[in-house]
Amino acid sequence: MAKDNIPKVYEPQSFEKRWYEFWEKNDLFHAEPEEGKKPFSIVIPPPNVTGQLHMGHALDNTLQDILIRWRRMQGYNTLWMPGCDHAGIATQAKVEAALRAEGTNRYELGREKFTERVWQWKEEYGSRIMYQLRTLGSSCDWARERFTMDEGCSRAVREVFVSLYEKGLIYQGTRITNWCPSCNTALSDIEVEHETEAGHLWHLRYAFEDGEGYVEIATTRPETMFGDTGIAVHPDDARYKELVGRNVILPIVNRPIPIFADEYVDPAFGTGAVKVTPAHDPNDFEMGLRHDLPQVRVIENDGTMSEGLGKYAGLDRYECRKMLVKDLEEAGVLVSTEEHEHAVGHCSRCHTTVEPLVSKQWFVKMESLAKPAIEAVQDGRIKFVPERFTKIYVNWLENIRDWCISRQLWWGHRIPAWYCEDCKETVVSREDVETCPKCGGHHLHQDEDVLDTWFSSGLWPFETMGWPDATPELKQFYPTSVLVTGYDIIFFWVARMVMMGLEFGKDIPFRHVFIHGLVRDSEGRKMSKSLGNGIDPVEVIDKYGADTLRFMLITGNTPGNDMRFYWERVEAARNFANKLWNASRFMLMNLEDFDASFTPTAEDYTLADRWILSRCQKTAAGVTENLEKFELGEAGRMIYEFIWSEFCDWYIELAKARLYDKDAAGERSKKTAQYVLSYVLERTLRLLHPFMPFLTEEIWQRVPHEGRSVMIAPWPEADKALVDEAAEREMASIMEVIVRIRNMRAEVEAAPGKRSEVILHFADKALAPVFAAHAAYFAALSWAEPLTVLEDGAAKPENAMAAIVSGVEVYLPLRGLIDVEKEKARLEKELANLVGEEKRLGGKLANEGFVKKAPPAVVEKEREKLEAAREKKKAVEERLAYLAKL
Question: How far is CA 198 from CA 179, 341, 880, in A?
Fold first, then answer.
């Protein structure tokens, strides 16, 4: 017997939370290592504890959940590891903004109190993120939730840092780094976003030391000239060959600096002579090292000019620029100013213009780590989906520079290095250091800096499973099966994990990298707070349900490509859920006397039964194949088409007559229809479950089934014995003709339900007995009754609409189907209106005054209206001529 029916109206809010609590309470998300069981594991890209999830997170986690739920149903031992990232710079910036609003700052609080405050922030926003993930339906193993600064991760971070240091791969050095004056910290290259900006190119004269002439240079940053320690020219530039070795006087500062030759210089840029500021430009820094130039730092960490610069000291760098350009002009040093577009680096977190500064930082040598990471992708151990992202990944790693890993922050993994104040020894240790191993002194202080966030998140796949201990989780679930992530963090995160996984996990961290695009607004713009176009996933879920949001996000979406968010697509996904809900409700109403012991024989099945059972197997096979290829959108589309069109619009409609049959003779036919409906619905719910988990659980629990939950029911496999190619061909022909009859009836506006004769002529003689045997299908779905066969050589029917489909000519006699006189009257009235419209628009466009004075777009619109009126008038005239023959 079927269980109680579902409510009349589809209201996902009434059951989604209930089913999530059921899954959690019954530990259905939890995985323990099991010897001999095939694993499937994913580590969540840990969202930052800086706020709440956005639509991109919703897409990312929906994709992961579909894969996890599918593999779980296939019998894999599935682990989906959840967690959050401490997100050093971003989180500290949020908390510091909150403190400013309270009239205080981190320095007034002190490091310990400030860190406590950030932990409070983490608890508040971390818990909101976990709530959002649950609301979305994410089947994460919550018993294993991790945080990049929990005790286990901290231990792993220290182990990796010290190990790399012991191998000579971590070092301290004075280098040019990207510096954010607002976040007040160094940034790695990939934390800088370059944007083209309109600026200026100032041409300046640097006079020769001996007073005879000058060299003209061009610069986009005159405020850095206080730090100039040389002028560089290309060694092959004939204009300057005789000048190499001479000195010029640095304007304003009046310090002599040399002219030297270096191949880095582009002779075509500016004047071909460039000022060199080793402390404030990465390329100048390298030239300075090659030519032993001093480094003179003239801009401070906060973006103000250094002491010792006279009236410019303490000025903001841009205020200094304005004053200096004016002074240079008055001194006759400024030759000219020209407009110039150039790429300017900005902090990816706060968007402040980055300042290249020389500072002492910690670095990781990347060359020896990058090589194995390139090989792992090139030899196919790691596969990118889509494959085109492989090239982007490899190109970046082949050109990688040493990684600056120290950040001047208080929130994050503090660098495990101690400095002895007595003997100046630097001690790097896995444990806190209180005694100097070199001199035995006790005056040590730990490095104030913390590690780049990506250092700890680069260990995520194996640190979350207990590394450096050899845990059962590592043995079974590492390497993980797939990483699902956006293309925007391939460099930040994916490459780091591969390098760290190979170095410390002793294997690749994942076998596939499944790349998805960004979720953009309906105009194709990136969703952002500044544009005010962001949409909260929970807002959509509250209104439409999680299943609707999930299905909208994955359908029409292909791997690696951006997608646009349209509310119309949300409505369409909700309509699909509603369609399945209503169909299931109808079926459950007709399964009240369902006999679970009844099994049909092959002779019991109708053509429609055999067709839908065959299509059900093909759909299961197709969905599985697409999931294997990570074509989740195509898999969702196949289920959608099967449920909406084949199952609901065709099979259920054809089954209705058998379900309503009160005749005892039709009892077996009714039982067969019930069996097929139950079989197909139950299997379809299992197929759809990874995509729409709540809706499928709610319905599945009420249809005849086995097991506690649909989420641990077996994944449907195609039963080859039920694949029936002949039934599919025959039904395809019948459906094609029915659709054509419906279209013909709609064209003549035949009253719905009004029966009409349909005459068929078969070019394919094999179809004649099939159509004859299933005339009831035509009567039920196209009101075609009777169905008459036109023999070869017989005259074609007069006064009938005609159409040809594969193997069949279809004739729809019109006499008696429509009221000819009434239709003529309606069309004549419509024709009169169109004639009037044509005359009005033609006159308007013939008026030269209107055509000349009106905006071109308005005139074009009127021309389009006239053309449309003429086309419609022609169609009405043709229709009237046709009716005149009846």
Answer: 22, 4, 65
